[in-house]
Design brief:
- The protein has 348 residues and is an all-alpha fold.
- Helix 2 crosses helix 8 and helix 5 crosses helix 13.
- It is globular and about 60 Å long.
- The relative contact order is 0.20.
Length: 348
């Protein structure tokens, strides 16, 4: 008799880092930090956010990214999708309150519409689909730089009191925890850029570990405050449905809108993948600064949307990779196809 051997799939359908995030949430639910431990975790989380944005600034080569301005129409299109179209759809979701989403979940839903685009996954999916990879690199870089400034301002303007408003305290936190470390990283990049490049793998673990600490602190505060009683399975299902509609609308808008604007196939792929995504790595630390004790509900929609976009875009990229050769040759070579491909980018 022949024996059948069963092997685990080589690639899990769920991002392993998402599993780590889920495990962190479960840990916070079972063993939330309280009292002195909460103070220690809060201080460590504040330091982790500052470290993250320092590393973002130190890794990001602004001079190389500016070389991509030759293809400014594509990058402007991605920025409009990220910081105009997404927020407008988020504001339209206000009609879902209170029948579909609670006010707290809607705040998180709107916040996810304000964070910058991803970098690494946009590049990866653009490459799989045989699109304009240099354009995806530049578009993600520009979005990350713009998001450092635009996301807190948009959150303050659109979220009002739930996002901290325009209070002096909120602006001071943004400046000290986000902008100042980012600028410091940019200024010191000349001296520490080589070190960061040589230890890229180790620092990747530092990035992800810092984000896990931020998540644990935020969800611990939510557990202690008892806000998780507001999230029922029905509300969670409604949130997933709303996010599925949001992602579908942005995927359609970026693809057909880019075609209407006259971009060739390679550029349309870069626009679709860079313009329809949201960065978990940037959004989680920002939420911890902007929302404080309510950050746990604010980051939940972003965590769910992140996994959804990875799964859906993986399918789309695979299908695009099978396009006929005559379609692959569509349109001229873009101006972004040059030395900008060497841009070093942060974890997105």
């Amino acid at each position: 008799m022949s024996r059948r051997t069963f092997k685990l799939p080589s690639r899990l359908p769920i991002d392993p880092y998402i599993l780590a995030l889920i495990g962190t949430v479960v840990l916070a639910a079972l063993l939330p930090a309280s009292g002195t431990a909460a103070d220690v975790a809060g201080g460590a989380s504040t330091g982790a956010v500052a470290l993250l944005f320092f590393l973002y600034g130190a890794r990001l080569s602004t001079a190389e990214a500016l070389d991509g301005l030759r293809h400014w129409r594509l990058h402007l299109t991605v920025l409009i999708c990220t910081f105009v179209a997404f927020p407008l759809l988020g504001l339209a979701g206000k009609g879902l309150v209170p029948y579909v989403l609670t006010p707290q979940l809607y705040s998180g839903f709107l916040f996810l519409c304000l964070v910058p685009s991803t970098i690494q996954s946009s590049i990866a999916f653009t490459s799989i689909a045989r699109g304009n990879v240099p354009a995806a690199i530049c578009a993600g870089s520009f979005s990350s730089i713009a998001g450092i400034f635009l996301t807190p301002l948009l959150a303050a303007a659109l979220l009002g009191n739930s996002g901290g408003g325009f209070s002096a305290d909120a602006l001071l936190k943004i400046g000290l925890q986000l902008l100042l470390p980012f600028i410091a990283g940019q200024l010191l990049r000349r001296w520490i850029g080589g070190f960061l490049t040589r230890h890229k793998k180790v620092l990747g673990y530092v990035d992800r570990g810092s984000i896990l600490l931020v998540v644990y602190t935020a969800f611990s505060e939510g557990m202690v405050a008892g806000i998780w009683h507001q999230v029922t399975p029905a509300r969670l299902g409604a949130l997933l449905a709303a996010e599925a509609v949001l992602l579908a609308l942005m995927l359609a808008l970026t693809w057909f809108g880019a075609r209407r604007l006259g971009f060739d196939r390679g550029d349309r792929i870069a626009i679709q993948f860079a313009g329809s995504k949201k960065s978990l790595a940037s959004g989680l630390p920002m939420a911890s600064v902007l929302f404080g004790a309510h950050a746990s509900l604010a980051v939940l929609p972003l965590m769910l949307f992140h996994q959804m976009q990875l799964m859906v875009c993986a399918v789309i990229a695979k299908r695009r990779s099978r396009d006929p050769q005559d379609e692959l040759r569509e349109g001229p070579v873009t101006a972004a196809s040059g030395p900008v491909a060497q841009i070093r980018v942060p974890v997105g």
